[in-house]
Amino acid sequence: QVQLVESGGGLVQPGGSLRLSCTTGGNIFSMFTMNWYRQIPGTQRELVASLRRDSDTTYADSVKGRFTISRDNAKNTLYLQMNNLTPEDTAVYYCNAHHSNDLVTPPVNVDLWGQGTQVTVSS
Hints:
Number of helices: 0
Shape: globular
Distance between the termini: 40 Å
């Protein structure tokens, strides 16, 4: 059973930086698209950044140019480098691993989630 464990959250002042880590416990990057989501209480979970198996990346408009998603294959760890943080970035951040395959029967759709890590941006 693959488990995702996030770390690196905390309290930071506006304009500061944090790096989130997600340890996967196994080499899953070749099989899964890796994502970072965030959620503010009372709202839907928001996709922040994605890193696909071919290393292509995408970002939410709200974090483009400030956040960078990356992975270390040797350490089985996903990262989210967050720079120039604002109070609007305050949320619980979740690591997600997603795999789907519609070419098999039955279709495969797998989502793995970490427990989340709190990021608070405040002066």
